[in-house]
Structures are given as structure tokens and as C-alpha cells.
Amino acid sequence: MSSNDHLIIFDTTLRDGEQSPGASMTTEEKLHIAKCLERMNVDVIEAGFPIASPGDFESVKAVATAVKDSTVCGLARALDRDIDRAGEALKPANSSRIHTFIATSPIHMQHKLRMQPDAVIEQAVAAVKRARGFTDNVEFSPEDAGRSEFDFLCRIIEQVINAGATTINIPDTVGYNLPHQFGSLVGRLIENIPNSDKAIFSVHCHNDLGLAVANSLSAVLQGARQVECTINGLGERAGNASLEEIVMTVQTRQDVFTCNSRLDTTQIVPASRLVSSITGFPVQPNKAIVGANAFAHESGIHQDGVLKARETYEIMRAEDVGWSANRIVLGKHSGRNAFRSRLEALDVSFRSESELNSAFTAFKDLADKKHEIFDEDLFALVSGEDANSEEKFKLLSLSVCSRTGETPNAEIVLSLDGKEFTAASNGGGPVDAAFKAIEVIAKSEAVLQLYSVNSITSGTDAQGEVTVRLEQDAVIVNGSGADVDIVIASAKAYLNALNRLSDAAQRAHPQLSQV
After folding, report:
1. CATH number at residue 467
2. Model pTM score
3. Which SS3 state, helix, strand or coil, does residue 256 take?
4. Is residue 502 included in any domain, yes or no?
5. Cβ(312)–Cβ(303) under 8 Å?
6. What is 294-324 written as a DSSP string?
7. Number of domains within the chain
């Protein structure tokens, strides 16, 4: 392999990432993320699973229409109806790919598929041939390859390549493999399959043991030239390989890797923030590359070293991944132009002047409560404005009383479908009281699965960002809210989750299967 080999980045945030409980996205949200990935120069965007639901079909079609510079991919089981549905959704794409899969491990073939190995091969070959009727860019995945028998993998991969598959993806579907094993598996497949030179080998690793990135990189060292990954490592169960970690490891260690991606890495942090704000999944402070502490130094020894020479304790430049070293300080005296310019620098745009005006009004309200507005505050503010565009439930006012020795009480005024309702309730704490008051009106009977609070910035006047996860009739959604008052932020998050539940039928993702 030459030193200028292209490592293809296949982003599956919109498909596998969306399968995280509570991470379901609207079509508009998917489009926003897809355009961000396109600006980052992601090679392939897996936009969804078209057969899963009418909403997912429309989302894939919308992404295929909007994205011009990246290849848009749709997932399909090795079934005629899946492939036809994917082909239909991808028709508008400048460059399209169908990604078809079938399980190949003994446990999956026996218990899930209930098929004999020869029948699995026959179905895989037929699926690839059918997909070639829609596009000459066809990817095949032997699901649970990490636990499949080597000889069987060689047989099925050789035959699907002969049938027209141009990318062969080797998934560690359940995150079972260790780096040396997984890398060796990929290397042996490339070496032993007679026609392996006619396809690009790819990997798709899950993080159940915390090894998704390590397994992916081990495979790259053995000849894989595509990595399937997600922003922030979002994905099923413990998540997928993190795009930002894959890309920056390969770029930083060019002394080891004989390939590199073509990504604009300065778009990594904006993409991370966008995905976090849309899904409601906060990024942990010590997360590599995109965490708030990723380039922070508190130790005196480290601070002294960095001040003398950055490279003593930083192996990457913060600016290279999208962290801003310099910024305009925004506050209550800042004007509309400074506000708009800062958001444009953060890759946030407005669809209309009225949307800008609404966001600017919210910014001024926040500036009256906080002395200085940080970028993180702006992201929270704008995502909140987006979330409020078509609300069934709207918070009009909230009053909470909490005193030592007394039961907390909350009184809330909500707008429900344009009508005003008032309710009050006691609770174990001010947040609990507020949630119970909301439920007096909403009567959702949703189950609260998660309540998480994060400080967006430092200081006692920092906004608190709250994530709420609700479950209703097997549908799980996340809601988020931000405010300098943590109880109000909590109420906003709960209402945001209720609004997501209200249109969950449109966005339901039945997760028919996963790679």
C-alpha cells in the first residue's frame, strides 16, 4: 500500500446512530446533519434504512436529493422488497450506494435466520445482483462476521464479489473481537479470497467492550480501506467506532498508517455539537477530540510545558478539529450583526429573517441573565429555537416553591395545541413537582427513563442543559432543554420529549435488524 492511499470514511450516524434508544431524528434534523457531513467531505453517508418506515424512506430520499458531493447510501436486508425500497429512495442521488447484508455466524444462521449456509450464500448473491440493477456501487456485509467461520466467510465473500459487490464490509456486530484478532481476520480474508482485489474491504465495529476504534484501526493496518463510524461514537448499545477518533488517529500517526482520509477536520467539533444537540446525547467532558476537556490543562506541570511548547502535551492542534482559539465575546450590548456573524462562523444558518429575529430575541433575554455568552450557549439557544418551531406543548410560565422542611410545589401554565392550561402538583423535589404538574395536563403516562444535567459553560451563571428520556408504548425519545434556571431547563426538556412523542408515529424506527 502506498502512503497516499485513500481511507474512505463511511458515516452511519443517520442510520446506526439513530438506532440508539431515544436518538430518532426528524427528516429536517437528518438533512441538517447530512449537510454538515457533506461539508466535512465525508465520502459515504448512510442516510437510513428505507424499508423500516415511511418516515425513514422519506428521510433517505430527502438526503439523496439534498446531498451533491458525498455518496448517499441506503441499508437493505438481502430481501427483494428491501433492495427495491432502497433503490427507489436513492433515485435522486448524484452518487448512490445500496448496502445489503445477511447474517453469517452460526448462532445467527441457526437461531435468527433458521437457514442453512448454502441458502444464505444463495440469498446474498441474489441480493447483490438485484442491487446492481439500481446502482453499480453495492456494498455487502456478512453480519456478525467477527463470530463467523473463516472458511464460510471466504466462500460467501468470493461469490458476492463475483456477483458485483464493490465494497465488502466486515462487521464486528456485537463488539466481541479483540484488536489483534479482528485485524488478523481482515488481513487473512484479503490474502485468501482469490478476487479480493476487485473490492474495497471495510469494517464496522461496535463498542460493547470499548474496542470499536482499536478494532477498526487494527483492520486498517491490515488493508481495510473503508471505516464505518459515527459522530461522537453514537450507535446501538455502547455505540460505534467514533469518526473523530478514527480520522484524527490516522492523521496524527502518519508514521504508522499508509493511508489518510480526505476530511476537513475543522468541521469535527461543529458536527459533534450538532449531533449532540439534535439527539440530546451530551458529550462527556473527557471524550477524545470533542470533549470540553480534550485540550484543557489544569496541572501546573502541563500548563508550563504547553506554554513553552504546545507539542509537549498536545499531539494535535485544537484548531485543526474545529475548536476556536479566538472568538468574539457576546453579551447584552452585542448587536444583531455580531450575533449573526458568530453563528455563521459556527456553521449555523437561519431559514428566514423571522427565525433570526426570534433567535436574537432569545439571545438578548439570555444576555440579561448572563454576563458573557459562550459558543456553547449559542448552540443550546439555537437548538432550542429549532425545537420550538412546531410544538404541541409550550411552556408559558413556571413557579416553584421549595423550602427546608416543606414539600416542594410547582405551578405551571402550558399551551397545549394553542389552548392555555394551568396545573399544580407537589413532588419529592422542585424538578419532580414540575414534571408531575406537567403530567396533570399532558396525561402522557410516559415513563421517565433518564434525567441528566450538564453545565454548558463554567461559572455560577452557566446555563444548565438537561436531557430527559421518556418511554411511551415502546417508543423512546430524548428531550433537551437549557436555561440558567435548572428547574426551568428541566421543564423545557420534559416538554421537548413530549413533543417528540407526539409525532413519534411518523418517526418510528422499528429497528428490523442491524449490521
Report:
1. 3.30.160.270
2. 0.81
3. coil
4. yes
5. no
6. TT---SHHHHHHHHH-GGGT-SS-GGGGT--
7. 3
